[in-house]
Each structure stands twice: as C-alpha cells, then as structure tokens.
Amino acid sequence: MRSLIGKQAPKFSAAAVVNGHEIVDNFSLEQYKGNKYVVFFFYPMDFTFVCPTELHAFQEKLAEFEKRNVAVVGCSVDSQHSHFAWLNTPKNQGGIQGVTYPIVADLSKSISESFGVLAGSYAPDENGNWVCEGTPVAYRGLFLIDKEGVVRHSVINDLPLGRSVDEAIRVVDALQHFEEFGEVCPANWSKGKDALKATEDGVASYLSKH
Q: CA end-to-end span of the chain, whole Å?
C-alpha cells in the first residue's frame, strides 16, 4: 500500500470503548477535525503480552499528549466487547484497567486494511473459499494526524517490536514547532533545541533557541 503521508486519514465509523467503561456505536476520528491532533495507533490483539505494555505506556503519558492538544486513540481487530473485558481486567492480571482513551473495534479488519497495517490479506482459494494469507491482525502502526485530518507521520512495527511513546511525543513537538515557527527539525531534535530554517539560497541554517 502507498504511504498515507500528506493525505487525508481514511474515514471510518466503528464501535469503540471510551473512558474505560462506555461502549459507543459510531466512533469516528472526524470528531477531532479542526480542533485536535490525533495519535491513532494500532496493536495486534487484546489479552496478549506486549500490547498491554504499550497501552499502559500511552496512558501514563496521556497528560503530556493532552497538554499538546492531542487525542490518543487505540485500535485492534478485536470486538468492543473484548476491549471492554480487557479494560475491566486488572493490570496485575494482564489487563489494561485504568486506560481511559478510546479503543476502537475493528472486527471487520477494514480500518486496519485502509491504514495499511493489516498483517494478513484475504483471497479466494481454488475452491472459492476466502482464506487469509499471513496473520489477520494489525501490525503496530502509529499515525500522527493534524487538525485538518492530514497524516503527517507514521511508523509501522512488526508484531514483536514495541514502540516508543516518548518518540511519538517528540514527533508531535516537531510538527507543532514547524507549524508555529516555520522551522524544520533536524535529526534527534527535541523540544527546546535549535531548529533549522531554509535561507533564500536554499541552505539551512541553525537558529537560536526560542
């Protein structure tokens, strides 16, 4: 699948669990458009090993995202009922109790497919039966979507590889710095460090800290 960078994020309407305890039927990222940035991340499945570490890590840094006007939203191919059960399972039992950001149900796998993170694909066999080649779960994809609904950053990890939540925050900072100051951010840039600005002759020059 071609990259979504610079394009409008795929639209969807699906069931989700919000605030850790409430099931809603028609959750959509469109509710944030014009108002908030969105970090939309996929994980393979509920009740697994690496996944709860990621979901708890996002929750632990949720205040950092919120003060940057970022909504965090998770998604997997499980149902809203599986999400609800996992959200009501204590952390010391492998659950994600205490997670409050929305978790979207992608039981049809259509959302994962539209974002290009589905680890398997479906095709008919010689008897006309639809079968999956690969694993029918989502890779660990993450998408930073700006307030206009445009995808500005994405990263997709294979199933065994957990992500860095701090890196997600760093990229949010870089995007917001560029939007505010028009300066681009070099390798390993972090908030408070020098950025770059293109001069008239096309040569990037360092600027002082703001």
A: 39
